[in-house]
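Recall that a protein's primary structure is simply its ordered list of amino acids. Everything else, from secondary elements to tertiary packing, is in principle encoded there. The following example makes that idea concrete.
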Amino acid sequence: MLTLYYAPGACSLAAHIVMEESGEKYEPKKVDLAGGEQRTEAYLKINPLGRVPALRLDSGAPLTENTAILPYLGKRYDLWPKDSNAEAKALSLIGYFASSVHPAHAHVGRPERYTADTTAYPGIKDMGLKTFHSYLKQIDGMLAEREWFGDNYSVLDPYGLVFYIWGMRRELPMAELKNYTAHKDRLLKRPAAARVVADEKIKV
């Protein structure tokens, strides 16, 4: 049985939704980030970086990073493209989410990761928010005349939802992003997504 380590409202939301979509029995383990559980010796054995998500596989081995976890789950639960070209595009989008969109948001919430100079925090946060917003606009464009990011619903879609929610959290004008908002609405009509969002107490 798989074990998912997650934190409410974090990027682990994507894997949490996929696990719930699967219908397979799994063990969800909430990590108390505010309380510092991610820095405990026990958790660092699972993920030495002290972050979520982490997935304990059937073998007991841990798997970390959305760039690995989501393709793994997608292939396991038939939520991943089978065509090689479509798979390459899916990997490209996951890479974009993980290496561009997420770090831009991290500049807003975690400026201490980028400098020890506290006087530089406001500038880092301001530029991070502007960059994050520009990426959300790009995502909106990707969804023009599309129901999902790929040809069918896949693990890409819950991952995309993460950044919509973060945009709302930062009080960005998300309603102006019509395609992205419609995608969010479609996704939340799926029972599994609605259950997880309610379980994590996310306002969206």
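The beta strands are 3-6, 27-30, 54-56, 62-64. DSSP finds eight helices and four strands in the chain.
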